[in-house]
Specification:
About 45% of the residues lie in helices and about 15% in strands. With about 525 residues, it is of the alpha/beta class. It has a domain of about 300 residues: Trimethylamine methyltransferase-like (TIM Barrel), CATH 3.20.20.480. Helix 6 packs antiparallel against helix 18 and helix 9 packs across helix 10.
Length: about 525
């Protein structure tokens, strides 16, 4: 193909992508990681962290602020202070609790084609979770609204690389807190048919969302017990404490066999020791305590080991993400999760205040660590900005490109005889080119990854077309995708039942903050 013709062809593809005339993406599929996880510390070093974590649990202990949780732990043999919140764990209790954890489980979606497997080498990608602000190039940074929340849900549905919405993609702050979980969950069920989570922010809140998950899938209560249909993220209130709302969440979710991700929020130098080994010792102690509690509530309940250890900027105290320390902690967190046979959660995070180069290189740093660390879910997969304070529409699209590239990287390389191309090499010989060989013509449409966002035109063609950079293209693309959005099918009787439930609970006052 002559150079000028190739340039024109690439220009047409690029212009179509910007104009929205042709949108191509990878299919929705359960991803599996074929590579051996990278292990950056030895078995002896990993054991040292494990043993140090058990020492923390035995000698220092963890505060469990909910009396009901302390009663469960006391009945199981934990050492509970008579007049306090501190709980200490015998090593044997931790070890026995780990034996009942399922190494693999399925999280069921209301659309069975979107159900997801967790554990082994499976990999799932979620949207960003819980920022209080939204931003785009058109309106700038603003407080999260229900309108923006719904837009992110629509993008999460239309983009195949996003497997689930784990948390609110942005907080809809214009909805009263007492009923926010009701309105937001209804929107999530109506606008997407992929798996989703419920917030453990009080007993009644999580009970409402569990009931809505049951209704959405048309299940009886006993069927829900055998088919996990909801997940909730539980953050330890680091250092060494679980608060009451989180513990209510574990009790209500685990007792119904719904999935829990136990994720200590350990920022090295602030809420955890300044060394990576020290921060991971604390992360592991908190994770083991929470994971053990899920099994004491209900042996065999699905649970995920969440790693979120990064560091702070010691000049300002601000959180830093996507750092080398964050990447190392991510890799070692995967080693710890595999030691216990527990599915592993990591994150795609950065500390940039704009969807710029810093946001991308920090995201790539930690995303590579998550993938090569054997993560089973990448939380905050698309859209995280400003250390988690902002959900960016442009970053959402940029991250979708990153995640698609990772997904394609996971596809195995074929090395069959026809793939070796010996006949093509013979035909071309020295000094020729492969554009017109039969080998190329048979494969050129599917040979290479086709990007969502990248512009591969030469400088002259790109400049003539306006010189639009990746962030600007992401701004255009997210709006085009929203224009193309079509809501997934929802059985009318289920929709009616869900809406009636929400309206009844709203009239009853929802779930006031306790």
């Amino acid at each position: 193909m002559p150079r000028r013709s190739r340039a024109r062809s690439r220009r047409r593809v690029g212009e179509n992508r910007v104009k929205g005339e042709a949108f191509e993406q990878l299919p929705f599929r359960q991803l599996a990681n074929p590579y051996q996880p990278v292990e950056i510390i030895s078995a002896d070093q990993l054991e040292a962290i494990h043993q140090a974590s058990l020492t923390v649990l035995e000698e220092i202990g963890i505060n469990f602020l909910l009396p009901e949780a302390r009663e469960i732990l006391k009945s199981a043999g934990a050492d509970v202070e008579p007049d306090g919140c501190r709980v200490r764990f015998d090593r044997g209790l931790i070890e026995s609790s780990l034996k009942t954890i399922p190494g693999e489980f399925t999280l069921h979606a209301r659309n069975p084609e979107h159900s997801l497997k967790f554990g082994k080498n499976y990999l799932n990608i979620s949207s960003v979770s819980s920022p209080p602000n939204a931003s785009d190039l058109d309106q700038g940074r603003r407080s999260g609204s229900f309108e923006d929340y719904c837009k992110f849900l629509k993008l999460s549905q239309i983009l195949n690389i996003i497997h689930m919405t784990f948390g609110h993609p942005v907080e809809p702050l214009d909805i009263e807190p007492a009923v926010r979980h009701l309105r937001s969950t209804l929107a999530r069920i109506e606008l997407t048919d992929k798996p989703y989570s419920g917030y453990s922010l009080g007993r009644q809140r999580i009970l409402d969302v569990i009931e809505m998950a049951r209704i959405a899938r048309g299940l009886k209560e006993e069927e829900l017990l055998t088919e996990p249909s909801l997940i909730s993220n539980i953050n330890a209130n680091s250092p060494l404490q679980f608060d009451m709302p989180m513990l209510w969440g574990i009790i209500e979710m685990s007792s119904r066999n719904q999935a829990i991700s136990i994720t200590p929020f350990t920022l090295s130098g602030a809420m955890a020791p300044v060394t990576i080994a020290g921060a991971l010792t604390q992360q592991n102690a908190e994770a083991l305590a929470g994971i053990a509690f899920t099994q004491l509530v209900n042996p065999g309940a699905p649970v995920i080991y969440g790693g979120f250890t990064s560091n702070v900027d010691m000049k300002t105290g601000s959180p830093a993400f996507g750092t080398p320390e964050n990447a190392k902690a991510t890799l070692i967190g995967g080693q710890l999760a595999r030691r216990y046979g527990v599915p592993y959660r990591s994150s795609n995070v950065n500390a940039s205040n704009a969807p710029d180069a810093q946001a991308v290189y920090e995201s790539m740093m930690v995303t590579w660590a998550a993938v090569m660390g054997g993560a089973n879910v990448i939380y905050h997969g698309c859209g995280w900005l400003e250390g988690g304070l902002t959900a960016s529409f442009e970053k959402f699209i940029i991250d979708a490109e990153i995640m698609q590239m990772m997904a394609e990287f996971l596809q195995p390389v074929r090395v069959e005889a026809e793939e070796l191309g010996l006949d093509a090499i013979r035909d071309v010989g020295p000094g020729g080119h492969f554009f017109s060989t039969a080998h190329t013509l048979e494969r050129y449409e599917t040979a290479f990854y086709k990007p969502l966002l990248s512009d591969w035109r030469n400088y002259e063609t790109w400049s003539e077309a306006g010189g639009i950079d990746a962030t600007q293209r992401a701004n255009v693309l997210h709006k085009q995708l929203l224009d193309q959005y079509t809501p997934p099918a929802l059985d009318p009787s289920i929709k009616e039942e869900l809406e009636a439930f929400v309206e009844r609970r709203v009239k009853e006052g929802g779930a006031p903050i306790t």
